[in-house]
Amino acid sequence: MEKIRIIAEKLSNIPWQDKPAGLAGPVWRSSDNPIIKRNPVKGVARIFNSAVAPLADKFVGVFRAETINGRPHLHLGWSDDGVNWEIEEERIAFVDENNQPYQPRYAYDPRLIKIDNTFYIIWCTDFFGASIGLAKTDDFKRFVRVENPFLPFNRNGVLFPRKINDKFIMLSRPSDQGHTPFGDIFISESPDLSYWGNHKQVMSKGGQGWWQSLKIGGGPAPIETTVGWLMFYHGVTQTCNGYVYSMGGVILDQDQPSRVKYRSANYLLTPEEWYEERGFVGNVIFPCATLHDAGTGKIAIYYGAADTYVGIAFTTVEEVVTYIIETHEEVGEDQLLGRI
Ligand code: BMA
Questions:
Q1: Ligand 1, atom 9: closest residue by C-alpha
Q2: Rounded to the nearest whole angstrom, what is the distance from the C-alpha of residue 245 to the centroid of ligand 1?
Q3: Given this model, what pLDDT does residue 65 score?
Q4: Which of 286, 288, 302, 309 to mutate to test the pocket of ligand 1 (most atoms within 8 A of CB)?
Q5: How far away, in angstroms, is 191 Cα from ligand 1 center?
Q6: What are the pLDDT digits (tens) for 37-46?
Q7: Which of 16, 20, 71, 308 is most buried per CB count within 10 Å?
Q8: Is pLDDT above 70 for 132?
Q9: Residue nearest to atom 3 of ligand 1 (CA)
Q10: Would the CA dihedral through 162, 163, 164, 165 be positive or negative?
């Protein structure tokens, strides 16, 4: 088979550690984990489920900061190496398109995605219950919120890093008010980020793997590769002691991303380390971002651990895509173009 490549920019500065000898599985953890620990900045008890992006040879991040009154808000952070982060003490001050303050009452699970020359932040916001919030910035100084893309309830909004057929593409997980098992991944498109349509179902929970039997949700922005869109996502199982969140991997069709090409039957990462098993909510791995280098195929995955910490895991496009292809299973109607 031809060498599998990432189709994106080259990134000379990327956090990296080689795979430890003898390790099974295609993804390995950073020995620096957790890279963000408890009480990271005044007024913030925990940071997890957060997103980062390269910015002029350094890095910027949008962090889910659980403040000391228990509410989550979004804070910016800065890093030279992607591992050590300076988190801002003040939350991001959003405005609306008329420059009026437009602060979310709460904000969690952000993704940060660059499309052309604009960065988009997409998160779970309050809109008569959990729904998707969307804002854009060109300079990380002014953050302009656009209208909430969807009706309540919805979570895990993820934009693709480029338009497909001239349309913005968004994954989401329509939901209800609670932490319910109601959870497949859907896809929608928009010419202008304002009007969304052509909704299709992408993936169902379930499959042979019980690790994703309860619900699934999008993760980092999909990575374009020569085989299709590589998407990491979270899958949840229910035990007698609560939920367990693991990370899975799937390849979506390059031109018609509602169609699943390959979906690994196995998880890629499941809670095993103390910082994943123990915390505010134990047994959670929740990926929200990647840094990836088209030059070397290196991928650094940023994930929230136990609703308390941030961790990094590594893989290469060759290794993880090959693994997903080799372990793929057909689940329901995933391979179709999306159901009506
Ligand atoms: C989900 C979201 C995530 C969280 C997870 C586990 O419903 O709220 O932010 O990490 O639950 O608590």
A1: 109
A2: 9
A3: 98
A4: 286
A5: 30
A6: 999 999 999 9
A7: 308
A8: yes
A9: 109
A10: negative
pTM over cut 0.70: yes
d(C-alpha 179, C-alpha 137), whole Å:
31
Residue 108 in contact with ligand 1 by CB distance below 6 A: yes
Backbone angles phi, psi at 25, to 5 degrees: 90, 155
Structural tokens at position 178 = 């609670």
- 3 state SS of 319: helix
Q: Considering only CA atoms, which residue is closest to atom 4 of ligand 1?
A: 307
| Angstrom distance (rounded) from CA 209 to CA 267 | 8
Average pLDDT, the chain: 95
Residue 90's pLDDT is 97
The predicted pLDDT at position 278 comes to 98
Question: Are 56 and 86 a contacting pair, CB within 8 Å?
Answer: no
d(CA 208, CA 329): 8
CA distances 281 to 17, 163, 245, 284, Å, are: 28, 36, 10, 7
Tell me if residue 10 falls in helix, strand or coil: coil
User: Does residue 284's CB lie within 6 angstroms of at least one atom of ligand 1?
Assistant: yes
Residue 166 backbone dihedrals phi, psi, to 5 degrees: 70, 15
Checking if the pLDDT of 340 tops 50, the result is no
Q: What is the pLDDT of residue 335?
A: 78
pLDDT in tens, 202-245: 999 987 789 999 999 999 999 999 999 999 999 999 999 999 99
Atom of ligand 1 nearest to the CA of 286: 10
- Is the beta carbon of 123 within 6 A of some atom in ligand 1? no
Residue of 175, 91, 172, 163 lying closest to 128 (CA atoms): 175
DSSP secondary structure code for residue 191 in this structure: S
Q: Are 202 and 173 in contact (CB under 8 A)?
A: no
